[in-house]
Design a protein that fits this description.
By secondary structure, the chain is an alpha+beta fold. About 25% of the residues lie in helices and about 50% in strands.
């Protein structure tokens, strides 16, 4: 009976150490991914990778940093209806430097910017008459 209290205290201390280590490792990994994602020595960065599309509409924010002024988007539409997309500059309804329709054929459909884009925020707006099913990848290129 007198060994139970020290055992419980030791278990609480060990759990506290494990939780502390996991949170510090987790924050370290987030910083490493963030720094690697915007490494300006790279020729491309992944903004969205395998983002799921669902529902009848979706909006994704794309931040274009300095030096990365070309955009490449890959869609896979695994739903039963085509969906449309626009990318708007600055606001959800701003100037649309890119738009298109993605057929419902399960294939990869790639859209690329024809002109250099300005640094700033862009909004990827995707909509469909029926629930969407698919993924989107967004890469920024130099």
């Amino acid at each position: 009976m007198k060994f139970i209290l020290p055992l419980v205290v030791a278990m609480i201390v060990v759990i506290g150490i494990i939780v502390g280590l996991r949170s510090s490792i987790s924050s370290f990994n987030k910083e490493s991914v963030s720094e690697k994602q915007f490494n300006t020595t790279s020729h491309s960065i992944h903004i969205l990778k395998g983002e799921a599309l669902a529902g009848t509409s979706s909006t994704k924010l794309i931040s274009v940093p300095t030096e990365f002024n070309q955009v490449k988007i890959d869609f896979i539409n695994s739903g039963s209806k085509p969906f449309t997309f626009t990318i708007n500059q600055g606001t959800i309804s701003g100037h649309a430097p890119m738009s298109g329709t993605v057929p419902a054929d399960g294939g990869i459909h790639t859209f690329s910017s024809e002109e250099a884009w300005s640094t700033g925020e862009y909004y990827l707006n995707i909509s469909s008459a029926q629930n969407m099913s698919g993924t989107v990848n967004v890469d920024l290129l130099k």
